[in-house]
Amino acid sequence: MNKPLAQTTDNAYLKMDLLRFTTAGSVDDGKSTLIGRLLFDSKSIFQDQMDQIESSSKLRGEEGVNLALLTDGLRAEREQGITIDVAYRYFATPKRKFIIADTPGHIQYTRNMVTGASTADLAIILVDARKGILTQSRRHAFISSLLQIPHVVVAINKMDLVDYSQERYEEIVSDFRQFAGRLEVDDITYIPMSALIGDNIVNKGENMPWYDGGTLLHHLENVKVGSRRNQIDFRFPVQYVVRPNQDFRGYAGTISSGGIRKGEEVVVLPSRLKSRIKSINSFEEELEHAKAGDAVVLSIEDEIDISRGDMIVRTQNVPHIASEAEAYICWMNESPMELNKNYIIQHTTRTTQAYASVLTYKIDIDTLHRKEAETLELNEIGRVKIKTAQPIFYDPYNSNNFTGSFILIDPSTNITVGAGMLRGITTTDRLDKEEKQPVTKNVVWEPWNIPRAEREKRNGHKAGVFWLTGISGAGKSTIARKLERQLWEEGKQTIVLDGDQVRHGLNGDLGFSDKDRKENIRRVAQTARLFLEHGNIVICTFVSPFAADREMARKIIGEADFKEIHVHCDSDTAQERDPKGLYAKARSGEIKGLTGFDAPYEAPAKPVLELNTTKVSVDDAVRALKDLVQP
Length: 631
Fold this sequence. Notes:
This protein is α/β, with parallel strands linked by helices. The protein has 17 helices and 28 strands.
């Protein structure tokens, strides 16, 4: 039983972790009842609130207390028994503080779900045990994936109405796993429960002895917080210029990601002028350093014209600076999106005119298939090319959800019409150029003497290129080497192309500038293509931090033969492992621009396999990868 929060000190309360989570699902799955039960059983509501709910329940002619009334605050919601708007609730236990966003289940309120989930660390997707996985369940799971919410709980509710059937629970888990296999979600937890009765919400109950997992509250109290926040790339959008007197000029804002120390060199965007951090001030004191989420005032050593909408970043770690980008957009207005119409884009603290020049496709939520379309209607999601009147400074959403997100505003009504997630620089033209690699004059292409199909037939297995990408220390080489040894002992034709090995010979003339990194990947991709055509299973282990460079490799090797695998762990774990001593050198200043430390990494948007090595052992990772190599 949790002790009352009142027993904790004010200072301890302020230092507690904060978990933001959202609830979603289809209509009448019991989202509001679940939250009501969570608040009631964790003793997070006052007696007068409970008295009011009991009174309202009696007036409605209900036999028991309707806990859903704790969150259904609008009159229309109480009358219809549904959630319409996003309802936020705050509570705490001795272990953690929580902000809940109870989002609507009706399809016409999908935009509200996007709003509620945009800042969440965890999503609870409710499923009615009687109905199983419905369209809205899939829709909200897809949106959670699109918004890069790192943790998902599938709450299989109303188990009391299916006689607490273990068989029914396992059937729903199997169905959801099959659908979730196409989503970008690393951590999915399944919990059977009854929000009405209270089973597995705060207390275990006695109705499902076959379930040996924890309760919902136990999971919420112990799930890792902060994994969504980018701790590497320092980004400081300027919110306000502070000038209390003639002797001080500071720049106020909240650090979106990364951290900064006094004395570090920075560059101001868009001017690209350099300086150093002179001071870091919080509300109470001057600081030596500040981190993501801190609201601070920075001052710099040089007199530079800086205003709201500018961004301060590290000199060696600069975001994309562009007036054109590709993005996913969820359309949130009843009037359809109009191509080439002027909208206002609000990106961090920067505002400028923008328009959607191309609608590449929209997404069918039921099948996740892409469809051709001329516009986006209310609640539809599509991929577009955005052009802005002034450059914006951004990172892809999957690496930094703060600088990778934006909203579109209709200037005539001042209404928010769309919410977007930036994908990166527009790659179409660039890739077309990259595909046309230089060819020596007066040479003629010679077809392969022995076709790959003949080699595969003799080898007894298919060839393919398996591209392991991730920061140093994630475990790429360890997994690749163990996999190759197992495949070799089974008689397979294999080769591992490792980043360090190719830089001792083939690419020994290259450094680590963006240009050299690109050329490194181009040469490796061409080499992998040669081994592929000779029937080999080619395992590539390269940091390959830029999505555009990996896309170039995909096009060189071929879409059907290129399999992108994301091997990852959190930055702290990678630095603790530090197998090659690179992070130690980076901390001492011996190395500059190390990916995962002071240089950006763009995670794959849709890898065929995610291997989180903080949770998965090397043996399990090898087994998962082996299943992919030998389907």
